[in-house]
Write a structure and sequence with these properties.
This protein is mostly helical. The chain has one domain: Four Helix Bundle (Hemerythrin (Met), subunit A) (Up-down Bundle), CATH 1.20.120.
């Protein structure tokens, strides 16, 4: 992934909560406990594409609402692949990598604004 990737748009995310950066940080703390990515992996392993699509859709919505920009983009693609029945393992790997990198950035925002 390129170094210029935007993982979190803090300005946009905090605007969604009326510029309350402390609340935004609290929402990011809650996001760290979200289990939808694990649900996607488990559902795909079990061949349950409906469950995987539902979890991908939920994760996509969370990332959009929190302005987790790159993870949102990757979730859009993953959900589309699952929905179309053309799921590719490399997309799941990309989402997993992006998820990990996003959590690193989330920790920085939480530390800065206090969650």
């Amino acid at each position: 992934m390129a170094d210029d990737v935007i993982y979190i748009n803090v300005e946009d995310g905090s605007q969604r909560v009326m510029n309350n950066t402390k609340l935004y940080a609290k929402l990011l703390v809650k996001f760290k406990d979200d289990k939808n990515f694990c649900e996607i992996e488990a559902a795909l392993r079990e061949g349950d594409f409906a469950r995987a699509q539902n979890a991908a859709h939920t994760l996509k919505g969370l990332t959009a609402n929190l302005s987790l920009t790159e993870l949102y983009k990757q979730c859009v693609e993953l959900e589309a692949q699952i929905k179309a029945g053309s799921f590719k393992e490399d997309q799941l790997a990309l989402v997993k990598d992006t998820f990990t990198r996003t959590l690193t950035e989330v920790d920085k925002v939480i530390e800065q604004y206090g969650g």
